[in-house]
Structures are given as structure tokens and as C-alpha cells.
Write a structure and sequence with these properties.
Length: 1494
């Protein structure tokens, strides 16, 4: 709780000394590592500021040695969904023991190298300085050592600030291993460590209340209060009153002030308590408590805010219908601890069945016997047929033949339509009796309803059958046969057949549905989720509207990570890693036992934006003002909250400033485990507030930006493990609005201005981050109308925060931690970095509304100072899938994406700089160690506002982004410079409807593209059908004739894309790049060339609206025409890519501009061009060279050119500044050369941008007509042919990770099983196979093949072939093998080739030991594939596919997690696992890449 506020003029709370900053950062690192020790993934809580924990804090005394080895979670850590507040102590003996073991090698499982590095990158940069920390760690990885220079980092100073010794020991060891610390430095540090550890210190005393453990409602000073209901009464709790509310109450309003306290009684067996009021105000020492951190509330409590917008006057500073906390107020709400949200661990199919539910009903037109054939193992309807056995005599033979082709064991459902008896022969009746077990078919009569569900070849007791008598009355009722079955994966399903007459109309039909409720398999333990609770399952498709809500049912058979839902899902929700990208749906709990809600009208009314909303949007809201004493909310549900009014949001921190230790709060403020749903204006609004922790909070089905930073000043806030989904447009800000709202709301524009929705509005986002210095860790943005996470930049602070920082500071501010976030099912983009808001009011010069979306650039620098070094913004662990337009878009620099996965996006990732020149000269963008997937095996499902459904690359139907014809791109190059390295591409294959390429370019691009754009160590899997595509004229591409379209280019450094080393890739018709050694690639519309390339930047003025024609002298008949950009600007700009050391001819389509400036861009010192510009023959010139500093606008090193006597003397490159004008040809010749050195990604030299300014004086009547080529005719310069330098096989190309997941600590192996049936073999397919990662095992014999993989290490430990054709006692042999030869904790992969009957058994129950829910009955000449597990657990990933001969061959693929907790792997499994994953992703097992067993 924050100390009571001192009166004006009194001294404030004591501040920590400056050295606290150094003490703080390592302590934060310690917090993070403790969480790791509890078995969780990388976890960060609140970012503790510089005047934070002092050396005497109890965090120092935590017993790290014990905690590192404990399997239990820390008290109130992730396992209990609360911030870290442990008070466990380490005594003197414990410190002594730790000292003795200091020199011992720590166990590998305690702290991994990867984790220490990751923590160092994010946390220690504040200790060592951002520039040093980045340079120290950016190239280091745990698989390969890199020699780095010795750098003095003042480690002794860090040690002196009492970092926990055990932790610092590990960090210092890491730094030494990296070559940063010398042995002497480390030795001194260790000596100081030992002295520090031997100093015993006393633990600070805990507050009396905390020691006693008293729960707030049990306080003896509380007076029972049962005030009853009086909605005209204003209740005041004040003047030291301490009340315990013991029954429901209702007031007009409730004010708690002057030291008054109200505590909700906690009586789990009593009736719930509901408090109703128009508003509740807590201030001046007032306190409201419902539970506490120590004693979460166990009963049910509701705070219900009522009233219409037109009722009564607003309270100043708060408004209406609110729960408000003012100066000195205390609000402590702590509900039952529940898991807020988790991920699906098994795919949830529509209807709960793999192939979905089935329903068919017919009336007239279905006379005879109607049959459905189903696979008993999957509930899939395999065949549907009708046999008119009433009128057609030949139908009985066809029926018998049809049944003869069905394999035994399949489910048959039969129903009579109209009548089926007249021509139904005795032979057929007996067949149906014997094969289906029918008891009534032999006596079936005219128009008699009859239905049956049975097993083909089964016994009579197993058939469900029903009949009705037909009396001619026209209504018989329905004969209904219903029977339950079990799929191989354990899902129960019911097959129903019905037949009858209703009012003279025949009815018959079939229904297949899941039975007894659908069980969801989840990643985490959810025993805190109770029957009656409500959950939401997020969409895993393009439409956010496929999110679905369910109530939970009792489920005594469920495991701790399972729940049963009431209802049937309509859509597909993925629960697995697909094609290497984690697409598991989020599942969130919407119910909490503390509920704060707004009471709503039945429909919209009054001035509540009813033109846009049919429902009432005037909900309740919580508002917290500056100088509150204490606010902590956990385990609270907020429903029907928020208003379409500025400042009235479900939870709103309003200008509260620092709310953590920096603001004097001993217990930092947080929101933890809230469920904010069905609300009307945002979720959590953080306005002028810093240091807030928002954790485990759900925002679902809300209007406007959900998690919202308002004015651009908000910093140091941490969003940890929050879930936002179904974020819809609202009306408050232009960026909240939809297209219709944008056009309709014009009260704040200037004059008659009509907004442009696509640029002014339409930006509603789940996370609206208005300042980069905030932390986003393990969040999920699972569906917004526009964007999932948007980093937006306020050039100056806006709203009530105006003037709090200088212009442009936010754009220069380094990015906080961005780690392991998920974005999917968003319409525009998953992640967007770039743009800003308009910070001026509407006026005649700019009539757009205030805070309209505007342009801005992100260019992070140390201390937000552009004169200091850049601090790369690292986007680490982004997962972006099923976003309609972009997975991610980032503009600015330096920005680095790493360890990220992009799948099924319209465009995976676009990296953009800043137009003609990057604003932050020398900056760049990069993506590395990432995976891109075009069209994955997540096919999606129709409905839920998914607009496009069409054929995929393999002929399957699937949902599609944007449009059926939209050209899909994995990595899109816009301008540059951008880099891509160590990335893997999969499944980019064009179809007849659309192009799909791994690498593409921004379409209809008028801007420049840098030849410094480069790629290296790229892996294109075989499923990539189009590696690169430059576009073609037509839909989407237009004429494909803009300047940037023509100039598209990138550099393949190592040949991993083109197959040729050091190759530039450009568009096929660009003769500025072409030479005889180039190779044309027609499918790409591109060409591959060697050479040296840079850019010529041309500015032209008076006139500035001309089209430029530029040609290389060698190919003067193939000029390139450029339109330029910024028509109407003072200077027109052109930026062609040119081959260096060549001659170029420049002409115009009108009067030559009077002023021309030539910049050599991306030239290294000594690089040159010869330029010839066409002018009227009477022109007079002044030519000047200078160096222009773009940041400061200063010009220096001015040198005047002199006229040369000849072209040769002007172009001889002697260093003299000469030009030559040939009046005969009309050309001005200049030698353009870079004289200064350029560094890194800078476009210009270190001194500035070198340039030549040409000023021509021309007479009005001058005419010009220049010859096509003023240079001597010469053949094209011989360049090194591309084909002479093929690239070598790259063993280190591609992403090092096999899969990008939200649980990066879990390693996976990729399993693919392809079986073959006899039909496949007859069609000349020869080999079945099992593929583990990239190692293939071929099977050319008949029978079943078993491969056993250790579930802990990933190593192949056994393999066996069983001949089912000639082998004897095969069933017994398989049974013995499974029981005795396969060890526990084993993955079991089973493949078949031309399988015959397994001799000796009609059923194989042994497969239940491998995870099948029932025995396997093999189909003769069919195919079988299984991914099983032998062990005590039954993992959710088990799969069984058992196909008949006429079905497609059984195949499956799956990413299987290794070393899960449920496997119960032994401790010594660490080393094999480490070895298995120390190689590249294609070498996990030590076998030949094509090992045959024959």
C-alpha cells in the first residue's frame, strides 16, 4: 500500500540512492530465473524501476539452491497466477553451503545457456549499456563459440551492489566463456562474492498484519452491516467506520471516505452478495476490500452499476455509473485464483469430430432404402446411396453388390424413404438380416417406417433398430435407431437413422454427432475451471468471428488438463503445431467469482451512437486517479463495462503517473487475472500512467482499442500473458472507427473535409502501444477488426499530457521487451510498427481530425537521443498466422525480427525503411532464424465472416486471405536496406487462381529499392513452387510499371535462393542491370546477374513533373522510363539502381529541368559512373559539388566544376572537377564519383551525402534533340557469368528451430508417415516411408513397420518389420513386440505397405496399449498409419488412421513435443536431448538419410 499522502509542503517519501539502479537490474534478472526454476517458460513480471528494492529486501534471502531443485512453483508465482511476493528465507547455514559449492559446475538443468543469453539481452543492457550489451550478445549463440574482444564492464562494481551470489556466479561464468571477462577479472569478482556471502544479515520484520495472516473480512474491528435496499439513499462510509457487508444491498450511490472501510463478508455457503449503486466513490482514506492477496475471496460477489445516460448529473472527474478511486483511496479486489487462459492441445473439429458432424433429411424423392456407410474409427461418412427396392427389381442386386464392397466393421445406417418393401427380395432381406443383424427387415411391409444402425458383419445384439406401423392415416411418427460408437482417439459419437410419415409426407434421414459432451484437451492444468463456468475458444482462421463461447459441464472422467463443454463447435480450432508454426487456439476463462457489471437496457437509446449500435453501450466503468493509496485487482470479471464516451472505460488509470516503487508505492499496482468481456469501450486504458503490471487478463468482445496507451507518454508498463480477441470498432477516436463510422463522424474535421477511412481511421487494435518503452511478453492478440499489436508514435504528447516530452522523442525511444507474443485472425495485420497520430487540431491547412492516423517513423536510439548509438528494436518470438493482409509490417530502423513464425498470412512480413532516404541514415531492418509458410495444413472452415473459400495448391478446399486471387508472399521487400538470414520457407506454390511466392515485392511501388537488400542462408523446402516473383501486369499488380516495380532487386549473398554465389536478382526487363552473363528466370519474371550495383538519386526542379528516361550506353535502345515520386513537391525524385563503372544516358519527356542534383547512393569510395544529360544546345551551366549533412541541413566541401575541353578529359577520373558540354550532340558529360568512405548500411558517406548540382540557364526558345547514344558504341562489358559460380550445398541454411512455438523451451520432432495400399502399388507407387525431421526411412516390403523413438531424447531406439502376407502368427508377434520390446516413454510410429489380413486375429487390442481407444481391425488391401505412445500417459497427439482399400492411402504428419512433464523423463535424459538438438534441424537421429530395411 502506498503511504498516506503528506500535506502540501511536507517532504515526500524518501528516494532510493542513485546506486539503486545497479542493484535493481540484477535483482530483476534473479526474479526471472526463479520463475524458470519453477518449470515455466521465460517469464517476466513487473519491470522494477531504478528506485526500487533495496539491499535489505527479503528477495535477497530466497533459497535459490532449494528452489532450483524444487518441482513446486514458487508461492504466488505463475502457478498461482499472481505476481512474485515470496517471503521464504535463506539462513546462515544455507549461505555457508552455497559458498562451499560456489566453485562447482552447476547442473545443466538449472539455467540453460540460451536462457541466460536471452535474459542478458533484455535485462543486462541496462547494467552494461545498451550499445555494449547488444554488440556483446547479438552474434553469440550456444551452439557455436565466437571470439569476442575483451571488454571491461565493471563487474566488481556490479558485485558490490549485492547481486545474489549464486546467480551472479552463473552470469560471470557465461561472460568469461564468451571471452568478455579475463580470468583476473573473474577471480576478483569471485573473491568478493565469497566475502559477501559470509556476511549474515537479519531478515526484515514483516508488518504485523502480514505476520498474523488475518483475512480482511475476519478483522475483529469490523461491524456487521446489512443495509438493505434503498435506491434513493446515498450511503457514506467514513470517519473511521469499518463495516463488513453481510448481505446484498442497493443504494443510489456509495461513498467511502475519511478512513472508512467496507469489506465484503466471505461466506462460501451463504447467498452471494450483490452491491448495486449508480456509482461508488472511494477517496481520502476510504477503503473497499473484497478478499486479499493472502486470502482470495471464496464466495460470489457482484458490484452492479445501474442507470441510464440521461439519469442525473455526472460526478466531476468520474462521470456516471462508475466505481472510482480518488486521492488516498484503496481498492483491493481479489477473487479466487484460477488459470486465466491456456492453449488447446488437441485440435477441436466442428461438431467435435474430425470430419465434422453430419445431418441429412429427405422427404419426397428418396423412395426405397437409404444407406450411409461410416468409418467406425473416425465417424466419417464414407458413402451414401439409395436403392429403390419398391419399384425397381434390379435394385436388390445393386444393393447386395454395394454391401459386398464395404469392409467388415464399418458402420451402416439404413432408413426407409416412402416405401422399400414391394421389390425387396427374400435373398436381400436375408442378407440384411445376416450382415447387419436386423430383426425386422424380413417382415418389412408397404410404407412401413424402418431404421437401423449396425456394424457390417456384426452380431444381432449390436444392431439398433426401430419400426413403426403404417395405417394409412398419414402420420406414423418416426422410427428412430440410434447407436453410440467410439473413435480411435476416444471421442464418443452417436449415429442416428430415422424414418416415418408426418401429415402424409415421408421423412427419413441421418445424423452423426458427438455424444456425451465434447472434451477439450488443454496445454495447462485447469482444475480451477468449474462446471457452469463460461469459456471462449479463439479463432484460428482468418475471421475473428470464429471465436466461440461454451459453458462447462461436470466431467468426472476428465484429466487435470481437460474440460467438457456444453454445445457443439461450429468451426475448426487448431490445437497443434502445423508446418512448424504454433497455431494452437487460445482458450480463456470468462467467469470469475467477483463480478463488476453494468446493468443494461434492452436496446440502444438516446445519444449513445445508436446509428452504429443496436444495443445499449452505456455500461459501467472503473476509474483510478492520481495519488490513490493502493489499487490491486485480481480474479475479477468485468462485464457490460465501458461507455462510448471519452474517458469511461472498463478499467482506466487516469493520469496516475508512476504507480510502482518509483511513485512511492511499496507494493506496485497491478491488474491480474481479469476477465473483461462483452464491454463497450476498450479493456484497460492506461493514460498518463507508468509502471503498471497488466497480467493474465482477458479482453474479449469489446469496442475500440482494447489494451490502450493513450497520450504517448505512458512508459515502463508491462503486459504479461494477456489475451485479447474479438476487438471491434468503436466511435471515440478516429483510429477506433470503422469505414462507416469514419465517414459519418465529421464534427471535429475542418470545413467540408471528408475523411479517407483507409488512411485516417480503420486502425482498431487489441494492443495500442503509444510509446515503445513498454514491455509485451507472452501476450496473444487473437482477432481484431484491424490490427493485433500496433506500435503507434505520438510526435508530441497529446491530450492532457501535452508538453511532457520534446518533439519526436517517442520515435527515438528504444523498444521495451517484446518476447514470445502471438498475433492471428486480424484483418489488417498481426503486428504493425509504424505510423503515428495527428497532433494538431483540424485547421484549414490540415482539415483532418485531431488524433487521426498519421505518418511517423520508428528510429530507436540510446536515451532517445539521435546523436547517440542506435538501440536495435528486437522482435523476438513473434508468431503470426491467419492474418488477412500482413503477419507483420515494420517501418523504421534498426528493427530485428528473430525466432519468429509466419504462416497463412496474405503477406508474411514486410520490412520498410523510409522512402527516398531512411530518416535515420544508416539504419536497417532484419529478419533471422524464422519460418515462413504460405498455405499450411490449417485449411480453416467456412463461415464466421470468412469471405473466401477456394482450392489450395494441392487441390484441397481452404479459406484464403483477402481474395481467391490475392498474390501470397512470404517475405515482401519494399525499399530497404533489409536483410534476411537463416530463414526457412514452406508451401509457397502458385495455383490457377493466384501467385504465391516465398519472396515478393511491394506492389504498385513508386519508391526506391536498395541493392543492399540481401538474403543469406535461406532454406527453400521442396514444397516451395515459386521462390521469387516480380509480378506481372494484371489484377493486383496493375500495369506493374511504377518506378519501384521496375527497380525491384535483392542480393543473394551465398546463392541459397538462386543457386549461384554473390548474385543480384532483378526484374527481367531491367536493362540497367543486365549483361551477357545474366540468367533469365521466366517463372520469376526475373533475371540473375553478377556485378556491382548502387543507386543514382536524381532530384529535378523547374519543371518537376517530367518523366525521366535513363539507359545504359551499352543497351541504349532499352531505356527505363521513371515517373518519379512526390509529384507537385519542390523537387521531383528518381532513384534508379545502376551498375557501377558504366556510362548512362539521361533524357526527359519535356523541357530539361533547370536544376538537377545527382547523388551517388550506396557508393563506396572510388565507385563511379559516367553521366550524359540531354540539354538544349545553347544552354549555359554552373556545376557545383558539395557534401550535404541531411540531419543538420548543413553543406560543406563546396567545389566548383570547370568546363573541360573534351569529353575524354571530363570523364578521365583524374580527380579534377570537370564537366564537358558537347553542343553538337546536346549532352552534358560529368564524372560522378564517391570520394568519401561509407559505413555499414548508410546510404551516404560518414561526412554526409556527396552530390553534384547542375544549374542550367536555357533560353525560352531553345529546342533540344539529342542523339540516342553519345558514347562510343561498344559491346556490353564482360561480367562474371552467373553460371560459373554455383553455390555449394548449405548444411546450415534455414531456421535452426524445427518449430516456432509459444513454449520455446519445449523441443519438437517432425513426424511424417506415408503408407501405401494395394491400389497405390498398382498405380506404380513403390515405397512407403516414415520421415523423422529430414531423415527418411523407406519400406519396400509388404506388411507393417514399427519405428520406436525415445520420447525424452528424440533418438530412434528400435525398428521392426512384420510380414502380414506370408508371416505366421503375425498378430501374436506384434503383441509380443509391443509388450516386451518397446520400453516405456516411447513414441511408436507405425506404417503399412500393401497390408493383408493380420493372421490370427480379427481385432488387435494390443494397439490400445499404444493409445488407440479401441482395438484395431485392419482392412484387407487397405492402409494403416499410427502415431502412438507407450507409457503411463496418453498424450493428446496420438493419431490413428485405418483406411479401406478404396480410400486414399493412410498418411499423417505431426510435430511431436519431446520431454513433456507427463512423460516423466528421468534426469539423465538431459544429455541425450542436448545432443539430439545440437545439430541442424535435419540431423536429429544418427541414421542414413534414406535407410531401407529390405
Amino acid at each position: 500500500m502506498r503511504p498516506r499522502q503528506a500535506p502540501p509542503g511536507a517532504p515526500g517519501p524518501p528516494r532510493s540512492p542513485p546506486g539503486a539502479r545497479l542493484r535493481l537490474i540484477p535483482l530483476l534478472l534473479l526474479l526471472l530465473l526463479l520463475l524458470l526454476a519453477g518449470g515455466h517458460a521465460f517469464t517476466v513480471f513487473t519491470i522494477i524501476p531504478e528506485n526500487s528494492l533495496n539491499p535489505n529486501t527479503s528477495l535477497w534471502d530466497m533459497d535459490h539452491e532449494r528452489l532450483f531443485h524444487s518441482k513446486k512453483t514458487l508461492p504466488e508465482t505463475v502457478g498461482s497466477s499472481s505476481p512474485l511476493r515470496s517471503r521464504s528465507l535463506l539462513g546462515h547455514e544455507g549461505r555457508k553451503s552455497l559458498t562451499q559449492n560456489l566453485g562447482q559446475k552447476p547442473q545443466e538443468k538449472q539455467l540453460s545457456c540460451d536462457m541466460l543469453l536471452k535474459l542478458s539481452r533484455y535485462i543486462l543492457k541496462d547494467t552494461f549499456g545498451s550499445s555494449l550489451a547488444w554488440n556483446l550478445f547479438r552474434f553469440y549463440n550456444c551452439d557455436q563459440e565466437v571470439n569476442l574482444p575483451k571488454i571491461r564492464i565493471g563487474t566488481l562494481k556490479v558485485v558490490q551492489h549485492k547481486v545474489k551470489p549464486f546467480l551472479l556466479h552463473r552470469v560471470l561464468q557465461l561472460l568469461r566463456n564468451m571471452g568478455v571477462l579475463s580470468e583476473a577479472q573473474q577471480s576478483k569478482a569471485f573473491n568478493l562474492l565469497k566475502k559477501q556471502m559470509l556476511n549474515p544479515r537479519k531478515a526484515p520484520l514483516k508488518p504485523e498484519k502480514e505476520q498474523s495472516g488475518t483475512c480482511p473480512e475476519a478483522d475483529q474491528h469490523l461491524v456487521p452491516w446489512r443495509p438493505g435496499s434503498d435506491t434513493s439513499r446515498t450511503a457514506v462510509v467514513g470517519r473511521g467506520a469499518a463495516l463488513r457487508l453481510e448481505s446484498s444491498a442497493a443504494f443510489h450511490s456509495l461513498v467511502i471516505r475519511d478512513g472508512g472501510m467496507l469489506v465484503f463478508a466471505d461466506c462460501p455457503r451463504g447467498p452471494p452478495i450483490t452491491l448495486r449503486a449508480r456509482y461508488i466513490l472511494i477517496h481520502d482514506g476510504g477503503e473497499l476490500h473484497v478478499g486479499s492477496e493472502r486470502c482470495p475471496y471464496g464466495s460470489r460477489a457482484t458490484i452492479s452499476l445501474y442507470g441510464r445516460a440521461s439519469d442525473g448529473a455526472a460526478v466531476e472527474g468520474f462521470g456516471q455509473k462508475f466505481l472510482g478511486v480518488g486521492r488516498g483511496g484503496v481498492l483491493e479486489l481479489h477473487g479466487r485464483r484460477t488459470r486465466s487462459w491456456t492453449l488447446l492441445d488437441k485440435t477441436l473439429h466442428p461438431g467435435g469430430l474430425r470430419y465434422g458432424p453430419y445431418f441429412s433429411e429427405r422427404r419426397w424423392g428418396s423412395r426405397g432404402l437409404n444407406l450411409r456407410i461410416l468409418d467406425a474409427g473416425t465417424a466419417r461418412v464414407l458413402a451414401a446411396a439409395r436403392f429403390d427396392t419398391h419399384l425397381r427389381h434390379g435394385e436388390c442386386g445393386r444393393l447386395r453388390s454395394f454391401l459386398a464392397t464395404q469392409p467388415p466393421g464399418t458402420v451402416v445406417a439404413a432408413a426407409v424413404g416412402d416405401s422399400a418393401a414391394r421389390s425387396l427380395t427374400l435373398e436381400t432381406r436375408l442378407l440384411l438380416r445376416d450382415r447387419l443383424g436386423s430383426a425386422h427387415i424380413s417382415r418389412l411391409r408397404h410404407r412401413q417406417p424402418w431404421a437401423l444402425v449396425g456394424i457390417l458383419g456384426g452380431d444381432q445384439p449390436f444392431a439398433a433398430e426401430d419400426k413403426r406401423e403404417y395405417h394409412g392415416s398419414g402420420t406414423t411418427g418416426l422410427a428412430v435407431a440410434r447407436r453410440e460408437f467410439l473413435t480411435y482417439d476416444g471421442t464418443g459419437f452417436t449415429v442416428t437413422a430415422f424414418s416415418g410419415w408426418i401429415k402424409g409426407v415421408p421423412h427419413n434421414g441421418f445424423k452423426v454427432e458427438a455424444s456425451n459432451g465434447i472434451i477439450l484437451h488443454l496445454v495447462d492444468e485447469v482444475t480451477s475451471w468449474l462446471p457452469g463456468d463460461r469459456i471462449v475458444v479463439a479463432s484460428t482462421d482468418y475471421s475473428m468471428h470464429q471465436a466461440e463461447e461454451f459453458n462447462l459441464l461436470p466431467c468426472p472422467e476428465c484429466k487435470s488438463n481437460q474440460v467438457k463443454i456444453d454445445g457443439s463447435p461450429l468451426y475448426l480450432h487448431i490445437g497443434e503445431v502445423i508446418d512448424g508454426v504454433d497455431m494452437r487456439a487460445e482458450v480463456g476463462l470468462l467467469t470469475r467469482n467477483i463480478l463488476i457489471q453494468g446493468e443494461m437496457e434492452d436496446s440502444c437509446y438516446g445519444q449513445n451512437q445508436c446509428q452504429f449500435f443496436s444495443f445499449d453501450t452505456f455500461g459501467g466503468h472503473i476509474k483510478i486517479l492520481k495519488n490513490f493509496s493502493s489499487v490491486h485487482l485480481s480474479g475479477v470479471e468485468l462485464k457490460n463495462m465501458g461507455q462510448q464516451i471519452l474517458g469511461s472505460y472498463p478499467v482506466h488509470f487516469h493520469l496516475a503517473e508512476d504507480v510502482d516503487e518509483r511513485g512511492g508505492y511499496e507494493h506496485p499496482t497491478y491488474l491480474d487475472n481479469l476477465a473483461i468481456h462483452h464491454c463497450f469501450s476498450r479493456c484497460v486504458a492506461i493514460h498518463g500512467t507508468h509502471g503498471l503490471l497488466v497480467k493474465d487478463t482477458i479482453g474479449y468482445d469489446t469496442l475500440g482499442h482494447c489494451f490502450f496507451l493513450e497520450d504517448g507518454t505512458e512508459q515502463r508498463n508491462t503486459f504479461y500473458h494477456n489475451l485479447g480477441l474479438l476487438t471491434k470498432p468503436g466511435t471515440i477516436l478516429p483510429s477506433d472507427r470503422s469505414e462507416a463510422m469514419c465517414l459519418a463522424i465529421r464534427s471535429n474535421v475542418y470545413g467540408d473535409y471528408v475523411p479517407v477511412p483507409s488512411t485516417d481511421c480503420m486502425a482498431v487494435s487489441t494492443f495500442w502501444i503509444a510509446n515503445p518503452n513498454n514491455n509485451l511478453i507472452e501476450n496473444a492478440a487473437a482477432g481484431a477488426q484491424d490490427v493485433g499489436i500496433w506500435y503507434i508514435f505520438h510526435r508530441v504528447p497529446t491530450g492532457q499530457s501535452e508538453g511532457q516530452y520534446p518533439e519526436g522523442q517517442a520515435e527515438y525511444t528504444p523498444l521495451g521487451v517484446f518476447y514470445n507474443n502471438r498475433v492471428h485472425s486480424n484483418f489488417k495485420a498481426g503486428l504493425f510498427i509504424g505510423k503515428g497520430v495527428k497532433t494538431t487540431r483540424a485547421n484549414a491547412e490540415d482539415p483532418r481530425e485531431y488524433l487521426t492516423v498519421d505518418n511517423a517513423r520508428f528510429r530507436p536510439h540510446q536515451d532517445a537521443d539521435p546523436e547517440k548509438p542506435r538501440v536495435p528494436a528486437v522482435i523476438d518470438g513473434l508468431i503470426a498466422f491467419k492474418n488477412n493482409d500482413h503477419g507483420a509490417w515494420a517501418r523504421g530502423g534498426d528493427i530485428i525480427f528473430c525466432n519468429s513464425g509466419f504462416s497463412d498470412n496474405g503477406i508474411g512480413l514486410t520490412l520498410a525503411s523510409d522512402g527516398t532516404f531512411p530518416t535515420d541514415e544508416g539504419s536497417s531492418l532484419e529478419v533471422t532464424r524464422s519460418i515462413f509458410v504460405g498455405e499450411s495444413s490449417n485449411f480453416g472452415s467456412q463461415g464466421g465472416q470468412n469471405s473466401y473459400w477456394g482450392k489450395g495448391a494441392n487441390g484441397e478446399y481452404r479459406t484464403l486471405p483477402r481474395n481467391k486471387t490475392f498474390p501470397i508472399r512470404g517475405f515482401q521487400i519494399y525499399d530497404g536496406p533489409v536483410r534476411m538470414s537463416k530463414c526457412t520457407f514452406k508451401k509457397f506454390t502458385p495455383t490457377v487462381d493466384r501467385y504465391s511466392s516465398a519472396i515478393g515485392f511491394f506492389m504498385k511501388n513508386s519508391w526506391q529499392i536498395s541493392p543492399q537488400n540481401n538474403v543469406s542462408q535461406i532454406l527453400m523446402e521442396k514444397s516451395v513452387g515459386l521462390k521469387v516473383f516480380f509480378g506481372r501486369s494484371g489484377q493486383w499488380f496493375g500495369n506493374n510499371d511504377n518506378d519501384g516495380d521496375k527497380m525491384s532487386i535483392f542480393h543473394d549473398l551465398d546463392g541459397s535462393v538462386t543457386g549461384y554465389l554473390d548474385t543480384f536478382v532483378g526484374r527481367a526487363d531491367n536493362y540497367l542491370l543486365r549483361h551477357p552473363g545474366c540468367l533469365t528466370v521466366p517463372r520469376w519474371n526475373g533475371l540473375m546477374c553478377t556485378g556491382k550495383f548502387a543507386q543514382l538519386y536524381i532530384q529535378a526542379r523547374r519543371p518537376e513533373n517530367l518523366t525521366l528516361s535513363i539507359a545504359r550506353a551499352t543497351y541504349h535502345s532499352h531505356p527505363l522510363r521513371l515517373q518519379g515520386v512526390n509529384r507537385g513537391a519542390p523537387y521531383q525524385q528518381y532513384q534508379p539502381v545502376v551498375m557501377l563503372e558504366q556510362a548512362y544516358i539521361i533524357q526527359w519527356d519535356g523541357k530539361t529541368p533547370e536544376d538537377i542534383i545527382l547523388y551517388p547512393i550506396n557508393f563506396n569510395r572510388g565507385d563511379w559512373l559516367h553521366i550524359a544529360l540531354c540539354y538544349p544546345r545553347e544552354a549555359v551551366f554552373q556545376v557545383v559539388a558539395d557534401i550535404y549533412q541531411r540531419r543538420t541541413g548543413m553543406v560543406h566541401s563546396v567545389k566548383h566544376y570547370l568546363a573541360a575541353p573534351s569529353r575524354a578529359s571530363a570523364l578521365n577520373g583524374t580527380g579534377e572537377r570537370l564537366f564537358y558540354f558537347d553542343r553538337a550532340s546536346g549532352y552534358l558529360f560529368v564524372h560522378l564519383q564517391a570520394h568519401e568512405a561509407r559505413e555499414g548500411h548508410s546510404y551516404c558517406s560518414q561526412q554526409g551525402c556527396e552530390r553534384i548540382k547542375i544549374m542550367a540557364h536555357m533560353y525560352p526558345r531553345d529546342s533540344w534533340s539529342c542523339v540516342p547514344n553519345p558514347f562510343p558504341e561498344r559491346p556490353a562489358t564482360t561480367q562474371r557469368p552467373v553460371s560459373q559460380h554455383p553455390a555449394r550445398d548449405c548444411t546450415v541454411c534455414g531456421a535452426p528451430q524445427l518449430a516456432i512455438t509459444s513454449t520455446p523451451s519445449v523441443k519438437y520432432i517432425r513426424i511424417q508417415i506415408q503408407s501405401l495400399s494395394r491400389t497405390d502399388i498398382q498405380n506404380h507407387l513403390t515405397s512407403a516411408f516414415i520421415k523423422i525431421n529430414d531423415t527418411i526411412f523407406l519400406f519396400n516390403s509388404h506388411g507393417l513397420f514399427f519405428m520406436v523413438v525415445d520420447a525424452c531424447s528424440g533418438a530412434v531406439v528400435s525398428r521392426r518389420h512384420f510380414d502380414t502376407v506370408t508371416g505366421e502368427n503375425t498378430a501374436t508377434a506384434i503383441t509380443d513386440y509391443v509388450q516386451t520390446s518397446i520400453k516405456e516413454r516411447s513414441l511408436v510410429l507405425v506404417c503399412s505397405r500393401d497390408i493383408a489380413d493380420v493372421m490370427g486375429s480379427s481385432e488387435m487390442p494390443i494397439f490400445t496399449r499404444l493409445g488407440s481407444a479401441k482395438p484395431i481391425v485392419f482392412h484387407k488391401e487397405g492402409s494403416f498409419a499410427m502415431l502412438g505412445y507407450k507409457g503411463q500417459a496418453k498424450p493428446s497427439w496420438i493419431k490413428v488412421i485405418n483406411h479401406a482399400g478404396y480410400q486414399k492411402a493412410a498418411s499423417l504428419q505431426h510435430y511431436v513435443p519431446l520431454k513433456l512433464k507427463e512423460y516423466q523423463c528421468p534426469a539423465n535424459a538431459d544429455e541425450p536431448l542436448k545432443f539430439a538438438f545440437s545439430q541442424t534441424h535435419s540431423e536429429y537421429i544418427s541414421t542414413e538419410a534414406a535407410a531401407s530395411w529390405d
